[in-house]
């Protein structure tokens, strides 16, 4: 990784991958080509897409459950379990009635394969890719598999922009160095990013502070903020175990101890979305997480309900 630091720096400044501090004491500014800015329309509701790996039937059913409740789905890429190739996934989701954002990481692909993926995705109709460096594998996760990291996230952004793709990027407002995270997002914008998706924070006020600082630093691209969807201990654990992500423990506890945790979790997610959408510069939300430990179909139904309620609230104010 050249243009660091990544978003997984722990609160005490330690690296998420090894013992010791992050090797990047400061944000490395973008020094590559700066493409011409293109206007991008951001989705109001972007929903995490979770299905069983290598299961076309589950992929299709999950897509159909989400199709009428969001503007796009965010297809992740997992370091501990492979899945179908991006172009096959994208084609299946498009045929199922949803617009996919495909995550491309640099962990398992060199720049030639990344260019192949980008060109293939563009050919089947994908407009946006989320460009990430990618989580490195711990020593006990697929130890038989090598890791590539020929590029990092910002250089992948530059490659995607050079091919006329819309590059979305993540940013973690709570990861050290916190004061420089807004500037880091601006550097990603300079590399060619057209959209940004923020990781979870514990309270919306932290997003407001981040956005104000980013605007002062020159950020102009649309930003989506993450909304955590939790309805049981399993869905909470998924989000609580990831470095750089913050949840409000009091809210999580109130959901888990509610008479109806599913309804409490949906209502809490909608409340968080309303607070985030009121922040200047936040134009959409990412409905994030598995939403349920009861299976992908149940999780999709819960996230669809959250999306529908957010849309109803927004349209009621128009």
UniProtKB/TrEMBL annotation:
Question: Which key words are in the record?
Answer: FAD, Flavoprotein, Oxidoreductase
**Protein name per Swiss-Prot or TrEMBL:** Methylenetetrahydrofolate reductase
Q: Which positions carry the signal peptide feature in this UniProt record?
A: none
| Family of this protein | Belongs to the methylenetetrahydrofolate reductase family.
Q: One GO MF term, please?
A: methylenetetrahydrofolate reductase [NAD(P)H] activity
What Gene3D superfamilies does UniProt report for this protein, alphabetically? 3.20.20.220
Q: Which InterPro entries match?
A: FAD-linked_oxidoreductase-like, Mehydrof_redctse-like
| Keyword check for Flavoprotein | yes
One GO BP annotation is: tetrahydrofolate interconversion
- Cofactor(s) recorded in Swiss-Prot or TrEMBL: FAD
What's a Pfam family this protein contains?
A: MTHFR
Q: In which pathway does it act?
A: One-carbon metabolism; tetrahydrofolate interconversion
């Amino acid at each position: 990784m050249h243009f660091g630091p990544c978003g997984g720096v722990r609160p005490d400044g330690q690296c998420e991958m090894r013992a010791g501090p992050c090797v990047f004491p400061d944000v490395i500014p973008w020094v590559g080509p700066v493409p011409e800015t293109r206007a991008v329309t951001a989705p109001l509701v972007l929903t995490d897409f979770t299905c069983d790996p290598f299961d076309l039937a589950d992929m299709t059913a999950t897509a159909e459950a989400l199709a009428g409740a969001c503007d796009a789905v965010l297809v992740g890429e997992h370091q501990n379990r492979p899945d179908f190739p991006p172009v096959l996934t994208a084609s299946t989701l498009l045929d199922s009635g949803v617009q996919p954002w495909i995550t491309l990481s640099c962990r398992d692909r060199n720049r030639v394969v990344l260019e192949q993926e980008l060109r293939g995705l563009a050919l089947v109709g994908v407009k946006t890719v989320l460009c990430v460096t990618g989580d490195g594998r711990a020593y006990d996760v697929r130890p038989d598999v090598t890791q590539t990291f020929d590029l990092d996230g910002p250089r992948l952004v530059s490659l995607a922009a050079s091919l006329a793709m819309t590059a979305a990027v993540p940013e973690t407002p709570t990861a050290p160095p916190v004061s420089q995270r807004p500037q880091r997002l601006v550097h990603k914008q300079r590399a060619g990013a057209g959209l940004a998706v923020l990781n979870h924070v514990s309270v919306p006020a932290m997003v407001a502070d981040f956005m104000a600082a980013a605007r002062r630093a020159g950020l102009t691209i649309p930003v989506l903020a993450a909304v955590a969807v939790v309805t049981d201990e399993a869905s909470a654990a998924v989000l609580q175990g990831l470095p750089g992500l913050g949840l409000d423990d009091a809210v999580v506890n109130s959901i888990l101890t509610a008479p109806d945790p599913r309804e409490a979790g949906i209502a809490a997610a909608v409340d968080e979305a309303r607070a985030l959408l009121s922040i200047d510069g936040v134009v959409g939300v990412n409905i994030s997480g598995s939403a349920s430990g009861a299976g992908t179909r149940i999780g999709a139904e819960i996230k669809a309900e959250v999306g529908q309620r957010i849309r109803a609230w927004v349209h009621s104010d128009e």
